[in-house]
Amino acid sequence: LTGNDSTATGKGVLGDTKTFNTLLNNNGSYLVDRTRGDGIFTYDAKNRTRTPGTLWLDSDNVYNAAYDGAAVDAHAYAGQTYDYFQNVHNRNSYDGNGAQLVSTVHYGRSYNNAFWSGSQMVYGDGDGSQFIPLSGALDVIAHELTHAVTDTTADLIYQNESGAINESMSDIFGTLVEYHFNNNPDWQVGEDIYTPNVAGDALRSMEDPTLSGDPDHYSKRYTGTGDYGGVHINSGISNKAAYLLANGGTHYGVSVNAIGNDKAGDIYYRTLTQYLTPNSNYSHFRASTIQAATDLYGASSAEVASVKAAFSAVGVN
Ligand SMILES: O=C(O)[C@H](CCc1ccccc1)CC1(C(=O)N[C@@H](Cc2c[nH]c3ccccc23)C(=O)O)CCCC1
Ligand SMILES: [Ca+2]
Ligand SMILES: [Zn+2]
Hints:
- The protein has eight helices and 15 strands.
- It is an alpha+beta fold.
- Strands 4, 5, 6, 9, 10 and 11 form a six-stranded mixed sheet that branches. Strands 7-3-2-1-8 form a five-stranded mixed sheet. A two-stranded antiparallel ribbon has the order 12-13.
- A hairpin with a 2-residue loop joins strand 2 (about 15-25) and strand 3 (about 30).
- The protein starts with a strand and ends with a helix.
């Protein structure tokens, strides 16, 4: 594929206008961004389930059609998430070696989900009631791309406690990316694309996991076999701890002093990439996070004290 790098404009899922990088040649405008790593490539599944589908080609480099919105956001938000890992953590793409970022939108019919396939991001359109196109949420895109970071580092097994930690890391960095770009940031997950007819709800709340029926304390963990052993359920335990670490608060009588998003992000990044292993459980997660914080701030630091308090507050001692 040859051509010239260009900057296009378009409207995202929520009708918001944005610019993004494309490649122009005599066929038209491709959703190809050659300015980041080995490139960002966005494809159209055309409501089928074959991936990646067709590389997105537009006629005039203006992406304002309703059908374009899911692709505009998948492409632009992948670029923002790339920039977060590069600029904040000095990581060049999800593998640290500039790996191409491939996304497919319009996957399936009324498909109410999104996923990292093991090699690319995939986004459904939703049924218009439970979800609208899932690439319309920056925290969701960063959630999916963080799975790729996890798979190339800790490689946490996607079940039981290691899977819950895997899931929480994706919710944590999804939220940190949303704050980094000040994109209506909050400690909820998927709020921008979840239940368009219901205001104020979210797929999950990190601030209060019980709002979606998930545990906010280790004593309340799910021990069944559903959801790969509760990976999207027991993530609430770590999500609550992360919320407390960044923002502070008192939970079940345990007080945590805030350290802020940036320090929390640096601690979780170091924990994920230097200490966690495929079968890490919550106990090992606590020890790893304390070690990462110790490396960064010292054993007697306020940051280490807050890490210990945050895990204790959710019953992981
Ligand atoms: O990446 C993930 O963890 C989720 C992908 C899960 C998946 C795994 C394997 C094959 C297909 C799908 C996708 C997201 C998720 O949390 N999904 C949850 C909740 C959910 C979304 N749509 C659903 C439809 C039915 C039931 C649950 C759901 C899940 O799959 O459990 C992440 C952010 C937004 C969607
Ligand atoms: Ca959010
Ligand atoms: Zn996930």
